[in-house]
Specification:
alpha+beta; 25% strand; Alpha-Beta Plaits; four-stranded antiparallel β-sheet
Length: 220
């Protein structure tokens, strides 16, 4: 059977890992990281119960390790493939652990009005008359879009309390999210300030603290 991967962590959890979706969790040492895995013959069905269990495992682990890099739902690999996927990426993994260590994620969403939410424009093919440098700059902006002015007041009030930020434009089905990475020691203060901001407008919702789902590189 293969390994179903929940997350990479930087240390052995402070207590027993417990169970995964349907079986016990194991720890695989891979370079400077540990993969938290469960033996499975197939990928769990994409349904709410499985998704909820996957997130519950990651959330539980996050409270027991200094740094966690959650892995997307449905990642099923054998040990050799897992090792190959992470080979020569120690520096990237180390940097990712450093960013999220002892930090949690808060998620803001802005409700989308009818007819909105098409998302950011893609850079598309390079057109004649556009320099390669300008094209690459446009592509970089599309890959990491800046929050629009509508978020300015909220960001300015919370800026002293978050260590990193990520914004995603709305899509046809999901409202635009703004993610903040916050030191665990500051999470209570952040939640208090955020609660006051949330009540100033009916268009904003906030949830958290969560594991740092939005601040993890695509590793597997």
């Amino acid at each position: 059977m293969a390994w179903y991967v929940f997350a990479l962590v930087d240390a052995v959890p402070s207590s027993r890992p417990g169970t995964g979706i349907s079986g016990p969790l194991s720890m695989l040492r891979l370079g400077h990281a540990f993969a938290v895995v469960e033996r499975r013959a197939d990928v769990p069905p994409v349904e709410f119960g499985s998704l909820e269990k996957h997130q519950d495992v990651v959330t539980r682990l996050a409270s027991r390790v200094p740094a966690i890099l959650p892995v997307r739902f449905g990642t099923l690999v054998d040990r050799e493939a897992l090792a190959d996927a992470l080979a020569d990426r120690d520096d990237e993994i180390t940097g990712a652990f450093a960013l999220v260590r002892n930090r949690v994620q808060f998620t803001w969403r802005k409700r989308v009005a009818r007819g909105e939410g098409r998302g950011a424009d893609k850079p598309g093919p390079k057109r004649d008359g556009v320099s390669g440098t300008d094209y690459l700059r446009h592509a970089a902006r599309a890959a990491k879009p800046a929050p629009p002015a509508a978020w300015r007041a909220l960001r300015s009030k919370l800026a002293p309390l978050f260590a990193a930020e990520r914004y995603q434009p709305a899509t046809a089905t999901l409202p635009e999210p703004l993610y903040h990475l916050v030191d665990r020691a500051s999470s209570g203060r952040y939640a208090t300030v955020a609660a006051g901001l949330r009540h100033t407008t009916a268009t904003l919702t906030m949830s958290g603290p969560w594991p740092p789902f939005a601040f993890v590189p695509e590793l597997l």
